[in-house]
């Protein structure tokens, strides 16, 4: 029998679609803003990748939305090792992880974000094989697969012996304050052992250099030069995109999405429905950058851009910007889309002419 | 007296000269002269005046020229010292500067090339028939080597030849009324940076195609996705910096043609293809060769150079003028072929850098067709021997091994593993190689492959030379593991110690002339 551990942080990702930078301590605010819990839905996407193993696998997990419900709904044989009553928290993740490690399951799948990964590390350290299903807002740690579906695929490859190698991947925490000051400052919390498969695990974020800043300035100038009258521009999260807002002298945000029209700030830190409300039928364009090292275009740090917003924008109106070095750090891997809607991912996939400088573009594929 | 110990494989006793030499402006003493020019005699002065008053006003300086004032022996000493502090091509085993084709340039060619110093480009055609014949025949040789229909030798370097190709592209599309529509030039990430920079200078938008992560060759699907009616040209090197030859380049060329674009072949590094593959058969409309690499003129830092650029028949009217023609009796300069409205007419004065062309001419004449082919065969053999030996050094490997595509004349390696194990980067090893009197080039920036090393042996080194080079690399890689601090603090035996690289990419801190240095740092 294959023994699979499953831990779902059910509130992970809740803040993202409503413009919050994380979910810790923000659950009520997120729910008030109309966020819908999606962590279990995304965990199920990963579990679907394990359906071929259904007859020979048992899933050990926690009760209810800690994993039991999702596993059972797909017809897996499920055993509950940890009971919760009512609301769950980090304590549940840690307790369940300990029990799963003790039980000696073959692989623990855990769904959440950087905070969840830190809890995993605290509970069981770096020895036990684990793999993250990305469902949180903030995911910088390369212990996560690139998408929930990729997590399922990688887990299956590992559990069936096609990939037996493990590697130590970092559990990272980004210092949000530094981030707001314009510096991506990443702290290392520890390591987890994850199955190795180059393309299916998130790469670490790349640092910035002085010449990188000059390149980012040239890119910002190019974006501003081409801005059209009466078109609304959504400026996505990230240091490269932030240069655009900065260069225009506007009080935008570094990790939020800002709405600009005719070089004036309409509103900073906008999200989902609010964006459509503010654009009020005017044409929308979206300026995005790629997360360094990982290569995410959508779905990490910019969940405010909901499928509805992205539908309204459309692929042709997405302007992707990134320095040559940042793209190079992807080593030829495609840009990644994980908008939460497979249909939207599909519509936005294909080649983009990424603006990499003054009159310079790099053809890059998104998928 | 005892027997000299020659058992060491590497030159641990090397030390480069270090003279602590000031900049020549700092050596200047007011009034000091190299030559005291006597005043003209009364008779001469009566005949030609003072030599200055007759000049038109706009040609006269308003202020004194700001040059160092220094005597002959001090000038000579200064430059001799600098030359000793330079790791020149004639003193080291030049394998370490991949993509530069640092082959040996026979000194006899140098002697002939110096004859050009006694000529002037404005001399009457009748008095320079030999020189014109040389240009004429060079054109014929380059046609044979490339398969294209006519060459110019005007560009003073590879990048200028690329600039010329981009200018001809523009001229051509102007002539057929498509210049406004075709605003983009496509190139590849592993082509030389000038393949993007030069067309950008002529006003084109540049679209890069990235390599396929498995084969390292340009991603065909991406290429097709960006080709459109906006594409003016496809500019590409082949082999690229990785040393991989794209045997399917014609597929890209054909596709570019299908959207109406022109295709330009950067053959600056032609050492892998002489007598083997030609621009014509791959379908290119233009190409250029660096005579100062493949054709054995020394490849100095922006030194005298020539980018020989050739075109197919339909593009001849866009070549710069003049060309050399021959009527069976006499060689003459000719401008008739040019499209006066859309042609490029000039990228450089007169006929380009004549000594470089002459050197290349001598080289071709001495080798003959079979000799050229032999050059390529030897260069590729040398590189594959180097490749085998480099790959056997623990921690050194190469990307795109899966592509099953043998390297041709050069290779970009990676020492990623060494860096992971020891924290020592290819930049560190580059500096440490100086301690053994050798170059070791990493890559253009930004690095596309991690911890890159780019090496190209050419046909010149002996097996022993290659062995010494690889033994030295292996020695240093071993140091990375055993005595890493020595490598990190290198160079120790070179002319200068480590420079503070933090400022290197800050344009505000750069001082590229004495004048700017004084403005910024005084
Ligand atoms: C492939 C390639 N193209 C173009 C050039 C530019 O030639 P140059 O240095 O003469 O401008 C080089 C020079 O290194 C090169 O390697």
Please describe what this structure looks like.
The complex is a heterodimer of chains A (367) and B (522). Chain A is α/β, with parallel strands linked by helices and 367 residues long. Chain A has helices at residues 27-32, 39-48, 68-73, 90-103, 114-124, 148-159, 176-180, 210-225, 239-247, 272-279, 307-313, 324-328, 342-348, and strands at 2-8, 57-62, 77-82, 107-112, 130-134, 166-174, 186-195, 232-235, 257-261, 264-270, 284-289, 296-298, 318-321, 336-337, 350-357, 360-366. In chain A, α2 packs parallel to α6 (148-159) and α4 (90-103) crosses α5 (114-124). The longest helix of chain A is centred in the middle third of the chain and has 16 residues, at 210-225. Chain A starts with a strand and ends with a strand. Residues 199-208 of chain A have low confidence and may be disordered. Chain B has a domain at 114-364: 3-Layer(aba) Sandwich (Aspartate Aminotransferase, domain 2). Chain B has 14 helices and 12 strands. Chain B is of the alpha/beta class. In chain B, strands 1-7-6-5-4-2-3 form a 7-stranded mixed beta sheet, sandwiched between helices. The relative contact order of chain B is 0.13. Classes of the chains: A alpha/beta (367), B alpha/beta (522). At the A-B interface, α8, α12, β15 and β16 of A face β3 and α7 of B. β16 (360-366) of chain A pairs parallel with β3 of chain B, so a sheet runs across the interface. Pyridoxal-5'-phosphate is lined by residues 99-100, 157-159, 192, 194, 237, 266, 268-269, 290, 305, 307 of chain B.
């Amino acid at each position: 029998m294959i023994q699979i551990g499953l831990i779902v942080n059910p509130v992970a990702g809740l803040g993202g679609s409503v413009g919050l930078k994380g979910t810790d301590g923000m659950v009520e605010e997120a729910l008030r803003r109309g966020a819908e819990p999606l962590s279990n839905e995304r965990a199920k996407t990963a579990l679907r990748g394990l359906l071929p193993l259904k007859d020979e696998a048992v899933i050990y997990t926690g009760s209810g939305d800690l994993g039991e419900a999702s596993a059972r709904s797909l017809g897996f044989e499920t055993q509950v090792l940890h009971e919760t009553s009512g609301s769950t928290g980090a304590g549940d993740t840690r307790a369940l992880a300990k029990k799963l490690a003790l039980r000696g399951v073959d692989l623990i799948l855990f769904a959440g974000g950087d905070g969840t990964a830190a809890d995993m590390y605290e509970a069981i350290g770096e020895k036990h094989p684990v793999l993250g299903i990305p469902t949180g807002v903030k995911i910088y740690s390369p212990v996560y697969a690139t998408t929930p579906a990729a997590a399922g695929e990688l887990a299956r490859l590992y559990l069936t012996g096609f990939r037996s190698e493990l590697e130590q991947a970092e559990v990272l925490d980004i210092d949000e304050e530094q981030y707001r000051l314009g510096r991506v400052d990443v702290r290392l919390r520890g390591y987890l052992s994850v199955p190795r498969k180059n393309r299916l695990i998130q790469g670490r974020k790349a640092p910035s250099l002085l010449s990188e800043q000059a390149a980012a300035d040239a890119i910002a100038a190019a974006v501003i030069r081409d801005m059209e009258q009466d078109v609304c521009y959504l400026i996505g999260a990230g240091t490269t995109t932030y240069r655009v807002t900065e260069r225009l002298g506007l009080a935008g945000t570094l990790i939020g999405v800002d709405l600009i029209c005719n070089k004036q700030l309409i509103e900073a830190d906008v999200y989902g429905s609010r964006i459509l409300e503010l654009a009020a039928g005017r044409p929308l364009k979206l300026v995005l950058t790629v997360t360094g090292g990982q290569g995410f275009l959508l779905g990490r740090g910019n969940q405010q851009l909901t499928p509805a917003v992205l539908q309204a924008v459309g692929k042709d109106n997405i302007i992707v910007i990134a320095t040559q070095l940042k793209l190079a750090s992807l080593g030829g891997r495609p840009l990644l889309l994980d908008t939460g809607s497979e249909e939207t991912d599909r519509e936005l996939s294909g080649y983009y002419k990424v603006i990499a400088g003054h009159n310079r573009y790099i053809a890059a594929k998104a998928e | 007296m005892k027997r000299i110990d020659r058992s060491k494989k590497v030159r641990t006793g090397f030390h480069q000269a270090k003279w602590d030499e000031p900049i020549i402006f700092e050596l200047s003493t007011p009034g000091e002269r190299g030559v005291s020019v006597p005043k003209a005699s009364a008779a001469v002065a009566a005949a030609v005046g003072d030599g200055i008053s007759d000049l038109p006003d706009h040609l006269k300086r308003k202020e004194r020229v700001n040059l160092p004032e220094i005597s002959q022996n001090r000038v000579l000493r200064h430059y001799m010292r600098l030359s000793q502090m330079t790791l020149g091509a004639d003193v080291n085993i030049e394998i370490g500067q991949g993509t530069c084709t640092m082959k040996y340039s026979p000194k006899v060619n140098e002697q002939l090339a110096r004859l050009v110093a006694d000529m002037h480009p404005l001399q009457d055609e009748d008095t320079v028939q030999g020189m014109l014949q040389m240009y004429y025949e060079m054109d014929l040789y380059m046609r044979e080597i490339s398969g294209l229909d006519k060459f110019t030798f005007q560009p003073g370097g590879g990048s200028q030849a690329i600039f010329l190709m981009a200018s001809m592209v523009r001229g051509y599309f102007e002539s057929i009324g498509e210049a406004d529509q075709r605003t983009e030039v496509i190139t590849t990430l592993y082509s030389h940076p000038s393949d993007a920079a030069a067309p950008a200078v002529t006003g084109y938008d540049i679209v890069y195609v990235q390599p396929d992560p498995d084969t390292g060759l340009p991603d065909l699907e991406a290429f097709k996705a960006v080709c459109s009616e906006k594409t003016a040209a496809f500019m590409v090197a082949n082999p690229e910096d990785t040393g991989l030859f794209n045997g399917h380049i014609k597929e890209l060329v054909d596709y570019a043609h299908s959207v109406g674009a022109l295709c330009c072949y950067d053959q600056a590094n032609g050492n892998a293809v002489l007598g083997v593959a030609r621009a014509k058969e791959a379908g290119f409309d233009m190409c250029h060769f660096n005579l100062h690499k493949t054709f054995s003129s020394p490849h100095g830092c922006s030194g005298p150079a020539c980018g020989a650029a050739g075109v197919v028949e339909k593009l001849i009217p866009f070549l710069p003028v003049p060309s050399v023609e021959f009527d069976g009796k006499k060689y003459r300069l000719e401008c008739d072929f040019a499209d006066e409205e859309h042609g490029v007419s000039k990228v450089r004065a007169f006929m380009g850098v004549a000594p470089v062309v002459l050197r290349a001419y001598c080289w071709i004449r001495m080798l003959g067709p079979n000799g050229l082919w032999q050059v390529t065969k030897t260069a590729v053999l040398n590189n594959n021997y180097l490749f085998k030996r480099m790959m056997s050094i623990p921690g050194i490997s190469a990307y795109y091994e899966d592509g099953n595509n043998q390297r041709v004349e050069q290779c970009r390696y990676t020492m990623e593993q060494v860096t992971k194990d020891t924290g020592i980067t290819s930049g560190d090893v580059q500096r440490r190689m100086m301690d053994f009197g050798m170059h070791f080039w990493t890559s253009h920036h930004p690095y596309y492959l991690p911890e890159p090393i780019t090496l190209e042996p050419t046909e010149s080194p002996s097996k022993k030379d290659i062995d010494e080079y690889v033994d030295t690399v292996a020695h240093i890689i071993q140091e990375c593991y055993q005595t890493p601090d020595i490598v990190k603090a290198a160079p120790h035996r070179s002319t200068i110690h480590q420079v503070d690289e933090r400022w290197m990419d800050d344009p505000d801190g750069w001082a590229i002339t004495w004048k700017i240095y004084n403005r910024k740092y005084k």
